C-alpha cells in the first residue's frame, strides 16, 4: 500500500484504531465512515476515517 493513499479507521465508540485501508484522495474528498467490527467493543460499530 502506498503511504500517500493510506487511511486509518477509528472506532467512534472506544476511539481505537482498528483498520487501515487505501483511498483515492483525488476522487473522494469527504471522509469515509463504515460500519466495521471492533474487537475492543466486541460488536459492529461505525468507524470514521482519521488523519
Task: Please report the distance between the alpha carbons of the first and last residues.
Answer: 16 Å
Reported by name, the CATH topology is Rubrerythrin, domain 2
The secondary structure category is mainly beta
Largest sheet: 4 strands, antiparallel
Q: Would you identify the regions where 5 or more consecutive residues have pLDDT less than 50?
A: none
> Which CATH architecture is right?
Single Sheet
Helix content: under 10%
Strand order of the largest sheet: 2-1-4-3
SSE run = EEEE
Level-1 CATH class name: Mainly Beta
Strand tally, please?
4
The mean pLDDT is 93
Rg from C-alpha positions? 11 Å
Number of domains: 1
Which homologous superfamily in CATH is the superfamily?
A: Ribosomal protein L33
Q: Please indicate the percent range of residues in DSSP E strands (runs of 2 or more).
A: over 45%
**Tell me, what's the shape?**
elongated
Count, helices: 0
What features would you describe in this structure?
By secondary structure, the chain is an all-beta fold. The protein has a single domain (3-50), classed as Ribosomal protein L33 (Rubrerythrin, domain 2, Single Sheet). It is 0% helix and 51% strand. The protein is built from no helices and four strands. The two termini are 16 Å apart. The model has no long low-confidence stretch (mean pLDDT 93).
Fill in the keyword field for this structure.
Rubrerythrin, domain 2, mainly beta, single chain, elongated, 51 residues, 4 strands, four-stranded antiparallel beta sheet
Amino acid at each position: 500500500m502506498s503511504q500517500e493513499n493510506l487511511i486509518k479507521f477509528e472506532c467512534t465508540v472506544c476511539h481505537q484504531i482498528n483498520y487501515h485501508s487505501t483511498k483515492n484522495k483525488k476522487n473522494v474528498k469527504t471522509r469515509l465512515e463504515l460500519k466495521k467490527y471492533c474487537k475492543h467493543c466486541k460488536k459492529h460499530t461505525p468507524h470514521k476515517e482519521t488523519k
